[in-house]
Amino acid sequence: MEEILVDKNGYDQFNKELDRLEEISRSNSALGSEVYRDAVGDGWHDNFAFEEAMRESRTIAKRIEDLLKKRKYLKIVDDEVKDEKLVNIGDTVCIELKYSEDDIEKEIITLTGNYLPNIEDEINEISLNSPLGKALYKSEIGSSTSYFVNDKEVFVTIISKNE
User: Fold this and answer.
1) Would you list the domain boundaries of the chain?
2) Of 2, 34, 110, 132, which is least surrounded by CB within 10 A?
3) How many whole angstroms separate alpha carbon 91 and alpha carbon 43?
4) Fold adopted by 4-76
5) Which of 29-43, 63-77, 94-108, 124-138 has the lowest mean pLDDT?
6) pLDDT in tens, 108-117
């Protein structure tokens, strides 16, 4: 597994998500115990609520396990020295994406070090860890680069940095 780049906020988000899942896991375990205890008979046989609680518990446990594995690959990226000619964390840039000769789009995106995307923001947030984010990070304004998605090369030109 390769490094997962985040800024300080992204690192905090990661840990909050892990804490949130652990809390859900604890409350789900208590609910499962309660449903098991309150059931007629042997507690689990033909008990849909208990089966559902156990399914939910396994799903959450898997998510927690995945996050714990990823935790050791987190790398906090600190951009205290910013070069105005390069795309850095927090920069909003205008880019041109060329998928093919006749499929070209202009987008305004913000490169973020967040672990979880902010879906309420009007401007597209692109993670440092996405293929596009990796292509843009530390690239020079005015330059062109490319990245791959599903074995298809996408060309990107960084038009300008928006203030």
Assistant:
1) 4-76, 92-162
2) 2
3) 56
4) Helix Hairpins (1.10.287)
5) 29-43
6) 999 988 877 6
Eight-state DSSP code of residue 77: -
Q: Distance between CA atoms of 157 and 41, rounded to whole angstroms?
A: 66
In 3D space, the residue among 18, 107, 149 whose CA is nearest the CA of residue 10 turns out to be 18
Domain over 92-162 is classified CATH 3.40.1030.10: no
Widest pairwise Cα distance in the chain: 71
Q: What is the token pair recorded at 126?
A: 């692109």
Task: Please give the model's pTM, rounded to 2 decimal places.
Answer: 0.69
What is the distance between the alpha carbons of residues 158 and 96, in angstroms, rounded to a whole number?
A: 7
Burial 108-142 (b: 16+ CB within 10 A, else e): ebbbbbbbeeeeeeeeebbbbbbbbbbbbbebebe
* Amino acid letter, residue 64: I
Compute the distance between CA of residue 129 and CA of residue 127 in angstroms, rounded to an integer: 5
The answer on pLDDT for 137 being more than 60 is yes
Least confident among 37-41, 90-94, 132-136: 37-41
